[in-house]
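Assess this one:

_____
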Amino acid sequence: MKTSFKIILALVVGPMLMLGAGCGRPKVYRTADGAVWNTTYHITYRASVDLHDSIRAVMRGVEASLSPFSKSSLISRVNRGEAVVADTLMIRVLTESRRVWELSGGAFDPTVSPLINLWGFGYKPGDPEPSQAKIDSLLPLVGIGECHISASGEVVKKAPGTEFNFSAITKGYGCDLVGEMLARNGATDYMVEIGGEIALRGSNPRGEKWRIMVDAPVEGADGPVHEELAVVALTDCGVATSGNYRNFRETGEGRAWHTISPVTGRPAHTDILSATVVAPTAMLADALATACMASRATDALAMMRRIPDAEALLVTADTLLRTPGFPEF
């Protein structure tokens, strides 16, 4: 997977505690930390056995299916034009991506992949300042609304040259999948964070909601710095923060951000510095946060207000904007 595009969310977690005994071993809070997909993960969960091997197995499964950086992955085979029967992971991600594409009025579109590559933010070498002719040649390939899974289970693309890059939804989905595995193994209290995306269930080691610190979009003299914007108490949801100030490149025409507009084929121009979304799943929160960053603040706020059970905090240079249900801090 590519380097995380997301603002890292610092996690406020208490010490390991032993809570009650089941039929066998007592359940205790455990931690699992490491590196995956060119980013890091931090997981806290309450279980009677260590599940780190199973956590890694889930991550390997996600990479084998959805990583455009692995030449042997299922999605890389689709991108090369091979006839591929979609697995469960690809079906879920493609289905949710089409739904968010509709909810966002096209602002979220993983088939913008060839243009992400063109600008040098994807899984192929790019051009630091591509010509308008190159951009125009790739725009007809964009359109996830014209992609689907056939009756025989194969991925049908808009055009032979259409490619998918689900990186703006996969880390969130990976968090959900790890959480689902933990729950199947009896761990109903957990915090799964991968590259800034988070899936939460149950209680933290203090028996309270999980406390999540959101970074302020601040640049220091040597680059972005971690500075607290807010700490929110959450559970039974997914959380994602997206922002452009951590992943950009200076060009002769100015700063080029990694979020590419599916409409213009150029880095999206937005007054939003960062967008934090709380949704029923981390996959949905991940995709919606990216959709916000491809929109102006007023449009992103209007979009989020139309979506049930999802809330957003948008940071601009002048103010904080939030939907009515975003947690207080």
